[in-house]
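Let us practice reading a record.
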Amino acid sequence: MLEESERTPLLLKSESPFGDSIWLQSSRKLNAILLYQHRPLPLINKILPSNGTTLLVLALLGLQVFYVFYQMPLSISALFVFADRTALLFVANLPWLYLFAAKNQPIKCLTGYSYESLNILHRRLGEVMCLLALMHSAGMVGVWYTILRPFGFSLARFLLSKIILLGIGALVVYELLYFTSLGSFRQRWYELFLVLHVSLQIVALVLLWFHHHGSRPYVGVALAIFLFDRLIYRMALKVNSLEASLEVAEDQGTVLLRSLIPLEQKQRYLKHLVCNGMVQGWRATEHVFLTVPALSGKHVIQAHPFTIASKAPQTGDPKAELNLIIRAQDGFSADLLKYARGHTSVKVRLDGPYGSQSGLCKLEQCDLSIIVAGGSGIAVALPLAWAVHASHLTNDLETCPDRKSASRIVLIWVIREGIHTSWLSPSDLQDLQDSGVEVIIPPPTSENMKPDLPRLIESRVVLSTTKHWDKIGVVCSGPNGMNRAVRNQCAVLLASGYDIDVEIEKFGW
């Protein structure tokens, strides 16, 4: 029986994870359903998000359908109304499209979700807008056929009119944007995708501006969001140029980039709010956009995202070491690897930091924190483990003295080759273990079977239920298959009655 004292919390959770009320059990089962992630779609191998995210996307799609067909007569005579409404809905969505893609935006301040979390809404909304553009074009062709053609207005005269030519040009550009934004295209020609995505959308905005005067307010707002985010905020205020060292890791396929950054000690509130650059530090799980002009002319305008793999600086630190783990694949990373084999340092530009703190905030409130990393996902996991550990050390012992002893942190790092541990300094993982963090590195998958992550997570969760506080948090950063396995195991545990929350740190364009 629990010995009570004046420091014992008045409301304690049940010793058993199954002793909750029916309402709470039903709530957790519903959350488990929303958390679950289905297998990729067959044939096209399309990765599906969680059920909750899928419902959100479907709600967005349903809203579009509602606005198009609300009190819309389904008759030939209403074709012009249909074409006009799809055009109005297209331009009304335009500012939202740019807002979801902006790196610096008010949505993060309001909700805590940064741009990488909103990226799926940016993509799906872009796809809906491309469909709306097609529907608008088809509707206008229908208007010509049913209304203009009987009066002798030829198809050539219709297509060659200025407003139609500009509209056709905008349609072609937006459809090109759609096809060059497909996952298969991005993965194969990433640098080309970056160039086309920026240049094509600028051309599309110009064409929309001259296509119809009614689109100009929306185009103006979208352009203002783009200019503020890309030119004013990121290039003028948030970019830092500095010298960095280069080292090729023992696996000969990874570049370790390091830089010592002097930090500003005194920050004015307004400057910190508007210009949160690298000299003002960063937090765990945040990332930067890296530009290395020395590689070639084309790399001067390219910025590539990488998670900061080093411990986040603390308040009062005069300097902070920034580490990036860059796995060589194609394009930029391959060029950087080739450059690093002949140079030990390089001048770089860093744009950032960016990222959400939702994962860190969740783990700071948990009694058991499980952090799972796959391969280079250790860049997320290592700083996060240190940040959670530091948070536990600074817990208010006057409020809850036993919570510190109840808190546990488990770091699981799945690697393909044993030599991949050379990405970290020898003391990184040892220092974590010495501080009380349980570090688990299963045998490399190239030599053994993949570890049973669901069972490994379940075993740690079951152990945590012996405590009177049993809030559990899981953060995973790895390949899609690992992320899905961890997410679904957490869904199973949540449905079983455990108070568990999961965050997937997956950066993607």
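A brief commentary: The mean pLDDT is 85.
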